[in-house]
Amino acid sequence: MLPRLALFVASAVLASAQFTLPPALQAAQDSATSIVVSEPVTTYTNVSSIANMVSIVDQKGGAPSDSTRPGLPQQATKLTALDGKLVDATVPTINLELGGAQRREAVDYEQVFSGSKSGEPDAAIEGTAYLTYFLVSNSTYQLGLDECLAHCDETLGCAFVNLYYELNNPYLDFVFPEKSNLKCVLYGDVHNEEEKTDLGNELLPSIRTVIQQSSGYALQSLRKPADPAGYKLVFGPLSAANNAPQYMGFAFLDKYDVKACAALCNTRGADSNDGACKFFNIWRAVVNGKPATYTCAMYSAPTDASTATNTGQGDLQVTRSRGYVRINHIVDGTFEAYVCDDGDIFCFTEEAAGWVGSSPAGGQDDATIFHYAPYAHHGSSVALLGSAFGSDAYPGLLQPAWPITGLRHGRTYVLGFFHSSSYSGEELESDSFVTVWWGRSLVGNITVGYSTWAYYEFKVVAGRNNTLSFIGGQAPAYDFIDDVSLFLLY
Ligand SMILES: *[C@@H]1O[C@H](CO)[C@@H](O)[C@H](O)[C@H]1NC(C)=O
Ligand SMILES: *[C@@H]1O[C@H](CO)[C@@H](O)[C@H](O)[C@H]1NC(C)=O
Ligand SMILES: *[C@@H]1O[C@H](CO)[C@@H](O)[C@H](O)[C@H]1NC(C)=O
Ligand SMILES: *[C@@H]1O[C@H](CO)[C@@H](O)[C@H](O)[C@H]1NC(C)=O
């Protein structure tokens, strides 16, 4: 037993001696065994899981025939499934009004289907994205239709109306003040004649309601939704969904609501390897020609139309697929813009594109940017706090080279980054630290001693002085920072 133990101790001492080789001397990857090069975890979009859920979710509906009053505001967008489980929840309400409410201006509707002849039975639509209903003037059908389309014009997200008479409904005949049996039902998606499945129902014993002259009108062209605050449209509408890596999961929404999908992305828990949600893909699932649900797929890395390759499977068709990337207000947060001359694999600097490192009086290279893949979290470049040559123990100051732009005063942003303090090994890293400053306020203080790459995030409020500073490292306790992001939260 004893010799083996002795050998173990000897090699540990040898190893820790090698760790003191400072970062500026390019510690070879094999000698610095404490540097963990994280293998990128690749999780692709789980297409079959989404398709399975589409086949079981049921989010179709129409106007109620009960005491629910007409003209109620539409309900908040609902989640009907989340990560492969059916749910019934509303999307977390976060203030994303910055994206701007959009109203139609001049609108043109086209008839999708006409109703039965007067006096003949018909059926009402049961479809996705029901918004609300109104009772419109029943003196003539045309007058009611004009009023109905005007309601659609005024209702955010309305894309389609189903207009029909409902006979034998005592609420319409006697209770509601409109005294009209002509129902105008608003939807956020276009439906077709095959979705006329509501044949009326038995409201009073042995008296059925009867549907007549059920017609459908759709907007000629579906509007492009306004970009949600904090996001930019990168593609769409396409008939293919993203099949991309760094997939974080999906949700089904009860309507095609890009703001709701953005809210889900913003409130999604961070991925331990890739950080916050940075991209979402919203698309409509159409099964046998009928809209079934609206998928919101989330990713921890941005992607684009090149990965939009999933057009559907079997009866399921992908339609109206749009990709939105989350806007990062940090320029070159990955440090990848910094590369070496002559294509070298190793170099470092105090001033890189987008970043400036500085040392206190008497210090040298206390905050630097390195291009060397073994030091980086992802890619090849990374920032270091702590004297690069190990020549002093002063903390360094790392800041963006330019003012952070595009922030809205008073809004809350989430600052995220990866940190590692494993370079010199357990013992020598015990004094590692990084303080994070927003203007003159301390927002974070990382004193974890030895640590491999880990994700941190802090909320900051945009004010007049939006200065970001990292102060830390005291060689030989080194702190590495990578993949810095600043995203609008609410
Ligand atoms: C996809 O999701 C299903 C559950 O719906 C799961 O059984 C399967 O393992 C997942 N596939 C991958 C590759 O994660
Ligand atoms: C309009 O609706 C009311 C309430 O249901 C009904 O009493 C009336 O007969 C309808 N008028 C016409 C012209 O259909
Ligand atoms: C903004 O904050 C930084 C960092 O604390 C500070 O150096 C600078 O003087 C501040 N600028 C103003 C205008 O307050
Ligand atoms: C950060 O935390 C450490 C350990 O608790 C403490 O000694 C240090 O003063 C803190 N730094 C700041 C700036 O508050």
Describe what you observe in this structure:
By secondary structure, this protein is mainly beta. It has three domains: 2-34 and 331-488, Jelly Rolls, CATH 2.60.120; 47-56 and 226-326; 100-219, no CATH class. It has helices spanning 2-19, 47-56, 141-154, 170-175, 258-267, 425-428; strands at residues 78-82, 85-90, 109-113, 121-122, 124-125, 130-136, 160-167, 182-187, 196-198, 202-204, 207-208, 210-219, 231-238, 241-242, 247-253, 279-287, 290-299, 308-310, 316-326, 347-349, 351-352, 355-358, 367-371, 381-385, 396-400, 412-421, 434-438, 441-446, 451-461, 468-472, 479-488. Strands 2-1-15-17-16-19-13 form a seven-stranded antiparallel β-sheet. Strands 3, 4, 6, 7, 8 and 12 form a six-stranded antiparallel β-sheet that branches. A six-stranded antiparallel β-sheet has the order 20-23-24-31-26-29, with no helix packed on it. A hairpin with a 2-residue loop joins strand 16 (279-287) and strand 17 (290-299). The longest helix is centred in the first third of the chain and has 18 residues, at 2-19. It is elongated, with a radius of gyration of 30 Å. The structure holds 2-acetamido-2-deoxy-beta-D-glucopyranose (4 copies). One 2-acetamido-2-deoxy-beta-D-glucopyranose binds next to strand 28. It comes from Mycena indigotica. Residues 1-17 form the signal peptide.
Question: What are the salient characteristics of this protein?
Answer:
6 helices, Jelly Rolls, mainly beta, 3 domains, single chain, 31 strands, 490 residues, seven-stranded antiparallel sheet, 13% helix, binds 2-acetamido-2-deoxy-beta-D-glucopyranose, disordered N terminus
